[in-house]
Amino acid sequence: AQTVTQSQPEMSVQEAETVTLSCTYDTSESDYYLFWYKQPPSRQMILVIRQEAYKQQNATENRFSVNFQKAAKSFSLKISDSQLGDAAMYFCAYRSRNLGGSEKLVFGKGTKLTVNP
Amino acid sequence: GAVVSQHPSWVICKSGTSVKIECRSLDFQATTMFWYRQFPKQSLMLMATSNEGSKATYEQGVEKDKFLINHASLTLSTLTVTSAHPEDSSFYICSASSGLVNEQFFGPGTRLTVL
Question: Which of A12, A86, A108, B6 suits a disulfide with B107, CB 3.0-4.6 Å?
């Protein structure tokens, strides 16, 4: 079974600075997706960024980028120019991409990000 | 973007009663819907996966007779918490997938409080 580990229960960053959230995962599959979701105080889950395992290029979405290290099974999220609105819980998630594989997401325990003004 | 709604957004009920939570995909057909439970300051725990027109697949440890899931149409899935008890109080979140894009779209969640 796949597992996702987020080793940082809490992180803080100064506004306008850069912060990196860590995520490692364990799987025997070769093809899969990795996601970072944001859950603000409203508790609405918001997709931040997605990475397909077969793509070597790291995904980027504006101020958000990932460092995907497939061999190390590492998938960290970098938030640049942090804004107060980035304060939230961040969840790393894994999904199988194999034919016949489950669509279900496996979530890490989350990292609470605080942005200080 | 794809929108998923949940109703109600919060509900308070007495112990022993049943509560139904609806999850609707508003602008796409959801072939698969997922139900999650989230305790305060914890991650999302998948309860079950439902495909339209077939029985839900429950995760290990989730009581299928207590958490009844129906996915009768491509836009609606319901979760019924039967004979609710205070320990069932939690935040319930649904998500939906069309199978066409590799993304689940999440509803805003339902806060259930059982007195």
Answer: B6
Residues of A with a Cβ under 8 Å from any B Cβ are 33, 42-47, 50, 52, 91, 95, 97, 102-105, 107-110
Q: What is the DSSP string of A74-114?
A: EEEEEE-S--GGG-EEEEEEEEE-STT----EEE---EEEE
- Judge whether B13 and B114 are in contact, CB under 8 Å: yes
Residue B106 has its nearest CB partner, among A44, A95, A109, at: A44
3-state secondary structure (DSSP) of residue A39: strand
Please count the residue pairs, one from chain A and one from chain B, whose beta carbons lie less than 8 angstroms apart.
Answer: 45
User: How sure is the predictor about B41, in pLDDT bands with cuts at 50, 70 and 90?
Assistant: confident
B19 phi and psi angles, rounded to 5 deg: -130, 135
Q: Which three-class secondary structure state does DSSP give residue B10?
A: strand
Return the HEC string of B69-114: EEEEECCEEEEEECCCCHHHCEEEEEEEECCCCCCCEECCCEEEEE
pLDDT in tens, B83-104: 999 999 999 999 998 877 678 9
Residue A51's closest chain B neighbor by CA? B102
B38-41 long-range Cβ contacts below 8 angstroms, 24+ apart:
B38/A43, B38/B90, B38/B91, B38/B92, B38/B93, B38/B109, B39/B90, B39/B91, B40/B91
Average of per-residue pLDDT across A1-23: 96
